[in-house]
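The freezer alarm interrupted the setup, so I double-checked each line after restarting. Inputs confirmed:
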Amino acid sequence: MRYVPTTPAEREAMLRAIGVRSVDDLFADVPERVRLRRPLRLRPALSDPELLRYLAELAERNGHADRLRCFVGAGAYDHFVPPAVWQLAGRGEFLTAYTPYQAELMQGELQAAYEYQTMVCELLGMEVANASMYDGASALGEAVVMARDLTRRDRVVVSQAVHPEYRQVLRTYTEPLGVRVAELRSEGGVTPPEAGAVDGRIAAVVVQHPNFFGCLEDLRGWAEIAHRAGALLVVACADPLAFGLLAPPGELGADIVAAEDQPLGNPLNFGGPFLGIIATREAFVRRMPGRLVGATVDSRGRRGFVLTLQTREQHIRREKATSNICTNEALNALAAAIYLSLLGPEGVRRVAELCVRKAAYLKSLLAALPGFELAFAAPTFHEFVVRTPRPASAVVRTMAREGFLAGLPLGRFYRGMRDGLLVCVTETRTREEMDEFVEVLGRVAAPRLRAVGGRTR
Amino acid sequence: MTDFPLIFERSVPGRRGHGLPEPDVPDRPLEELVPPQALRTRLPHLPEVSELDVVRHYTGLSHRNFSIDEGFYPLGSCTMKYNPKLHEEAARLPGFARLHPYTPEEWAQGALRLLWELGEELRELAGMDAVTFQPAAGAHGELVGLLMVRAYFASRGERRTRVIVPDSAHGTNPATAAMVGYEVVTVRSDPRGNLDLAALEAVLDERAAALMLTNPNTLGLFEEQVDRIAERVHAVGAQMYLDGANFNAMVGVTRPGDQGFDVMHMNLHKTFSTPHGGGGPGACAVAVKSHLEPFLPVPVVVREGERYRLDFDRPQSVGRVRAFYGNFANLVRAYAYVRSLGAEGLRAVAEHAVLHANYLRVRLAPYYEIPYDRICKHEFVASGIRQKRRDGVSTKDIAKRLLDYGFHAPTVYFPLIVEEAIMIEPTETESLQTLEAFVEAMVAIDRECREDPERVRTAPHTTPVGRLDEVRAARQPDLRWKPKG
Amino acid sequence: MYPEDYRYSTEHEWAKREDGRVRVGITRFAADRLTDVVYVELPAVGTQVQFMQPFGVVESVKAASDLYAPVSGRVVEVNERLREHPELVNEDPHGQGWMIVVEAEDPSELERLLDADAYRRHIGEA
Ligand SMILES: Cc1ncc(COP(=O)(O)O)c(C=O)c1O
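Predicted 3D structure, all chains:
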């Protein structure tokens, strides 16, 4: 039997040692009434070559980012992943280990997590970071619950320019706890700080930076307003590579950052596994969800690493735990640490700069393309919203046939934005691809206008 | 005796490990693109190292880990079975790994079809009617499950306030119940290690939203009265939640749906062999009976003829617990696993997991206390109480000493209801020879406990570091490296 | 080992009368069972505590226990030293390891607690 090494003779010998006659005897404690009395009705088993062929066939039916040139981001980013990242992270020693409960045997994973926590703190400008949450959206949900616990207040205000799926998750996490969520209107693609929105009943102000539309928010302004009212500033972030160039949220007054670290060396994976992170102030560490790795010494004074402050966690604190999280996204965190090591300070700065410059280039081309216009004037990082002459969803469908993933149509999330297309440019897009993108867009998306904008020089 | 360096300690200013491109677009002053006050003023302290430095560093760290690929990992409740290499190749196909979650549906048909087919297989295995893959791990699945239970009662205009959990339950169960706003009521186990039916009845009334049961339970024992329990729970209108962490013991033998469960989660990183990754990522399926289907998180994969689609229009849905659709790459692995084994192979998994566990149980019984010494399922719980009383050696010491013998330790001190618990789960993928070698090591340690207890108490002796000072780590938390000066 | 002039709760707190005030800590039995205390979460001065309701948490590496107030009243002092030196709870639980001082509303509540003899019986050390 595939993956079961026991031979019939060994099976008999083991049954004899146990003192039973058959394997059925080992299930004598399963009441007759609930036993399955027929074979499972499953698809037939496949041999290894058949299975790989079938999976390759399914894979090839997909318009993946090597087939359709990727101009969509919206929470999942096509950055370049150096081959060393997964050749290292994919090693069986990392891949097939469990959570490092036996620290002496798991220094590799533990040290990598400690290094990762450090790198996240550096990138986000925060004091402590955990060793991962499921994804950015669930990290945000947990961050808001954390803010509620820290402030003992039960209202939050959330910008409408936070990723709509993140907001949905935030509501799912907070609603059963009786937290009231109000939304802050965005104007011109940003969330202008508004003192009247925050009073002494508010636990947290939640903004995303750069926000869902790609625009930069005024975190400093919001931090001041939140702190004056005794509330916390919770910052969501879908691509921390932005902070290779932008001032990190920690320097702008963020109290908790909930980030998505997929962009750091992790594949698109049709949306998962991704890599959530919560980073915060040292003073809040005991209210933090998720695993934390700390440095210590062994019996002979050598440096070593352990899971620490575990009394926050479910296996000790049970219903009083800060979260129920157990399995996390450790391997993705390892990949992110490898990625950040390869890039170094100069590399993250370069990626961020390439993103900004390239996105600005495409923005200027699209602004000049007849029938298209930029939705917002606010400064952006590597994403921006463009208004399309036809419904954005139709544009995306047409462009896919032309070999492009043109962006995310916003109509699904924002009423009144059916002509809004969220476009992303990472360092992996070339000038040639962008020129072609605009040319094709001009041709197929605005057929009644004469295409003139394509070859701007 | 120098410490293994941190990647930061390998850093040399000016060294580089990447081959990123130069800008290919017209040069514009940065200040035109980003307002100066939004810019970072100092670069982050990341290591400055070459690619070879990075390769050596992480290869070195990998040698300081212990994995299934290296040796036996009898960690109870975690199902550390072999993770087939074929799965890795499949998950890394560009058509899966490079697929953006917002790819239009007509361009994601292969992925959606895989999800649909995996859903069909798991529904049959579970005896359930509908499934979601959105949660990222078991605990996240528990959250989805209880949110659905809550939404179900809300739709009937009922507000129930309690979730009942056995005293042997995993910590995630009560933690999840609290996250959904429920009061947790704990029920004790009976002397045979099953849920105490009388104790359950004593707390069961219309305040109960659900009973969260693990089956086989965390003692590795099948809940012999599971259908009776379900009857009682349903009699007060409450729901039966199965923590399916231990599903490995029953695939193809008995189905949770037939046992009376309304909703369950499956940890795909356990039964369905997706790798644990040193703590994650996992993957999870939550399967439900039809009365809970309207409450599934959005979106749900649906089939229309030969086309597959994501259905977002589900007004009674609990919403979302994460962005996108689930830990897809691991769902590819789980799918490959189910298709490699088929009906017969999956039943053989359960049978051999149970066979191996029982074999270890009888082989170890002469040396270690087995508090519930009867036919177990895929795992069993021994106790180090004999060694503790006789030799003053704790279960922790025994666990640490096992590391010297080249084995990962079993799960220890869980479940909480067994003193000095040693929870052993061998899985079906280990050979008789490996099981024998483990027995030999456990027997040798028992002898050491008598003859040279100090050796056990100070273990491990052969690992990259010795016993670590956890007290210091907690008293003076050092959670990040800091640059000098 | 258990001072005769203290009162004891079944949850292993001790209470020592000091004029109208009551000093509170945990017993040696509890401290030993917890093993090395790594953290004590205490209320701020001025907090109201209720008889046998939680007022804080004491933690070791592997366990966390709620602390129960052996008397109702206002917290007038907290042992700030425990922040830096939680090990005092293990080293001197009935002395320097004290946790809070409460301005008792109703000192007769202490009568509902155990005396040293009864406590020793409670923990099987009689
Ligand atoms: C019995 C039981 N329930 C729940 C869980 C939690 O699952 P996960 O780690 O996938 O979140 C585990 C895993 O350790 C478990 O063993």
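Quick read of the result. The longest helix of chain B spans residues 328-364.
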